[in-house]
From TrEMBL:
Organism: Trinickia violacea
Ranges annotated as spanning the membrane: 12-34, 40-65, 77-97, 103-121, 133-152
Key words, A-Z: Membrane, Transmembrane, Transmembrane helix
Matching SMART domains: acidPPc
CDD domains on file: PAP2_like
Region annotation (Disordered) ranges: 209-231
Pfam family, one: PAP2
Domain of life per record: Bacteria
SUPFAM superfamilies: Acid phosphatase/Vanadium-dependent haloperoxidase
Name assigned to this protein: Phosphatase PAP2 family protein
Record's compositionally biased regions (Polar residues): 218-231
Domain Phosphatidic acid phosphatase type 2/haloperoxidase span(s) in chain numbering: 24-148
Length: 231
């Protein structure tokens, strides 16, 4: 692992946060719709939506029912790794789409490298296991590569690269530290769907000791509270 200070790893990991990457994804879709076709914009949002769905479903499955793979410490696809590996290659591809093919390809590679750096930061900061970060990078890269392959020869109308690049760069700078409580939302959904009062926890799950009961059972079996003692 690169020996970087913790604050640098934190700065890197924030590039994968939903508060930054989702607005960037929407901006990409708007530029695609304005400068190319609505079909490209819809394809981009559709691919990203599938990738987001994979992340959400794997996390809900673990938090609500303990579905995971203990052997590789997998409890859900990393959202940071997926979003960064999906969004940054496509953002750079869009900026460089009017340029020559080697330049476009270099932009996609740089974007993938940025996503890998975010995935690595999640492991270094103990936010995810290696298997979860790798899964996130793979899912995100698949979404990005499929979109790039499909739109490789797209012809822009009056769209220029400069406003696209400036707008995406400004968004990146402005939203770098914006945080969205996506994990809290996913946890609420998982508990609602599973009927449990508490989510599965990685450490207890790995030890085979975490077995939440449905809310109704928890309420019926909870011991009656005793009045506080005067002593």
């Amino acid at each position: 692992m690169p020996d970087l200070p913790t604050h640098l790893w934190l700065s890197i990991t924030r590039f994968g946060g939903a508060g930054l990457t989702l607005p960037l994804a929407i901006a990409i879709a708007l530029w695609l719709a304005l400068g190319y076709t609505w079909r490209l914009a819809a394809a981009w949002l559709g691919l990203l939506g599938v990738a987001v769905g994979v992340v959400a479903l794997t996390k809900i499955a673990f938090l609500g029912w303990g579905v995971g793979v203990r052997e590789v410490d997998f409890t859900g696809v990393s959202g940071h790794a997926m979003l960064s590996t999906a969004v940054y290659p496509v953002a750079l591809f869009l900026m460089l789409l009017p340029t020559r093919r080697p330049v476009r390809l270099a932009g996609v590679v740089i974007g993938l490298a940025a996503g890998l750096a975010v995935g690595l930061s999640r492991v270094v900061l103990d936010a995810h296991s290696p298997s979860e970060a790798v899964a996130g990078c793979v899912v995100g890269a698949l979404a990005a590569v499929v979109f790039v392959w499909w739109s490789w020869d797209a012809k822009p109308g009056q769209l220029h690269a400069v406003p696209v690049a400036l707008s995406l760069l400004m968004l990146t700078v402005a939203l770098h530290d914006v945080r969205v409580p996506t994990q809290r939302w996913i946890t609420h959904i998982a508990l609602h769907l599973s009927g449990h009062e508490r989510p599965f926890i990685r450490a207890r799950w790995k030890a085979g000791r975490d077995n939440p009961r449905p809310a109704a059972i928890e309420q019926n079996t909870r011991p009656i509270a005793q009045p506080p003692s005067d002593t």
